[in-house]
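Exercise: predict the fold of this chain.
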Amino acid sequence: MTDRRFTLRALAGAACATLLCGIAAAQSPSTGSAQAFPSKPITLVVPNPPGGLVDGSARLLSDPLSRIFNQSVIVDNRGGGSGNVAYGMVARANPDGYTLLTSYSAYHVGNPVLSPKLPWAQKDFVPVALITVATNVIAVHPSVPANTLPEFIAYLKKNPGKLSYASQGNGSLSHVGTEMFKLRTGTSMVHIPYRGSGSAIQDVLSGQVQVFITTPPSVMGHVQAGKLKGLAVAGKTRHPGLPNVPTTAEAGLKGFELEAWVGIFAPAGTPPDVVAKLSAGIKQAMEQPDTRTRANTAGIEIRYQPPEQLDALVKSETEFWTKTIKSAGITAD
């Protein structure tokens, strides 16, 4: 009888222990989530059509990241609405780390200033990693009678409103950056907005639109081929793919610099350990020698930063863009 009571107590104790362990596991949903992640394909949502810096950065990341995680990493282009279609989609996605936003600086920090009533807000995302940056090139069609930046500025002053410039859309970096250029130089050009770099560059190459201030991936090959004239690089140093193109400072326009960035964000509520594993995998992917080779060929600069640094960048950039957009009187219409 004593042995039987002892056996029953032991079984009851084991059952209670099992129950308590189950309760504890249920109360800690993130426990073990990073160990199991990823167990299915990851999607990188791109807020632009194919082509250009953002799409190029996502494709730069997808192949090495898929090898590191041993899962497919799919690039999903969701252009439209100045990026808002993609941002709204990811903001509403399940926060499990499998749907990520390939975010463009102009959209991430500019859109909330331009359009307060958006289907998303910055708080809807958590930073994962900064992956790339790119300076901007002041490129013009060969028909423009200027071979240097000072000659171009002088021509614009003598012919206000005669030339038109392309942008990837209202509120894009090419839009805001060119408006900053106009303010800085006291010149005038007509704005022609497009839906992404792909359609914009076609009209610039044909001469229908004469000016495009944009990131190297969109124009570098055309400048190298002589189809466009590169007048200056709006950065602190010359671009390795355009060694003969001076910086704006070297060309006499000191203080005018433009830099775009691309970062990976997850929906708010994504478990911190999953974010950490994603960020570590992205860092490893961007450090691969073949990734750097492809980036150099495309005119993209790799610059990994962890979540906390990307978060600080978003805050400082939001402050800068707010001041710039208001001073230039830029609207989303």
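Check your answer against the key: The radius of gyration is 25 Å.
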